[in-house]
Amino acid sequence: MAIATAPITDTQRDRILAFDEGHFLDFKGKDIQPAKLSRSVSALANADGGELYIGITNDRKWDGFHNVEAANGHLQLLEQLFPLGEDYGYTFLRHDREKGLVLQLVVRKSRAVIRAADRIPYVRRGAQNLPVNTPEALQTLERNKGITSFENEPVGADPVEISNSETVIRFMLEVIPTAEPELWLRKQQLIQKEKPTVAGVLLFSDLPQGLLPKRSGLKIYRYKTTLAEGTRETLVGNPISVEGCAYDLVRQAVAQTQEIINDLRVLGPEGPVPIEYPRRLSTR
């Protein structure tokens, strides 16, 4: 692996040494174990990317590698785990009056989950590298990267909940060409591994809230305030709960909002006048 060596000026050196460690930046001494170093690279790649300087001490002193060969142990592991290319860039920095070469790693945000030498992925939070060592944390990381999504996850319910519901039967009457609900749902990947997906439940269960409690309903709040956000003190009445499939949630939410708005009055030139809330907005 050929890595360039770049000379830097006094100003550039001073800027590097003045940086603070944080979400996008990390410093490591040249004596760090390569396996431990891989955690920092993993963390940056799994977060928002950043830069890593190897050969700068915690007290911001330049203490680089004697030569390129002295960094071989670090480079071999890094190249194995994080190949030089679009996601990772490696450059040796040299200053005429400083000791040794500092290895600069430019780490870009990765679309994949990047694991360290211990096979655990890490994420960068502030100046910390936090392990993603639980199934729940890994699932969250995969969602954040778009590898998996909540709507594609299976729900622990019988497929009949969506294949024989009134909602799906009404919908299938509009599908061209006509098809059997279960077969159509499987083709649309809304039934996978003999389980309905979250998307399938939200769209075609008659009451998704029974299968996905606290994650599939709506509440409508009205606040009497001029502030951008309401508070408990400015809440008017009790929140209105809206349940049903996704289609019904939209229709009922619009209807409930329209009813609330239509009951309001604003002061016009000749006194209070009602407000009209359009049920459908023109796209022209």
Keywords for this structure?
single chain; 284 residues; alpha+beta; Methyltransferase, Cobalt-precorrin-4 Transmethylase, Domain 2; five-stranded mixed β-sheet; two-stranded antiparallel sheet; 10 helices; 13 strands; 31% helix; elongated
**Number of DSSP helical runs:** 10
CATH architecture of the largest domain: 2-Layer Sandwich
Shape: elongated
Reading off the top of the CATH hierarchy, the class of the largest domain is best stated as Alpha Beta
Write down the CATH topology of the largest domain. Answer: Methyltransferase, Cobalt-precorrin-4 Transmethylase, Domain 2
The CATH homologous superfamily name of the largest domain equals: Schlafen, AAA domain
Strand order of the largest sheet: 1-4-5-3-2
% residues in beta strands: 15-25%
Structural class: alpha+beta
Q: How many separate domains make up the residues?
A: 3
* Straight-line distance between termini: 58 Å
SSE ordering? EHEHEHEEEEHHHHEEHHEEHEE
**Oligomeric organization of the protein chains:** single chain
Number of DSSP-assigned strands: 13
Low-confidence stretches: none
How would you sum up the major sheet?
A: 5 strands, mixed
Average pLDDT for all residues: 89
How much helical structure, as a percent, in the residues? 25-40%
Radius of gyration, in Å, reads 29 Å
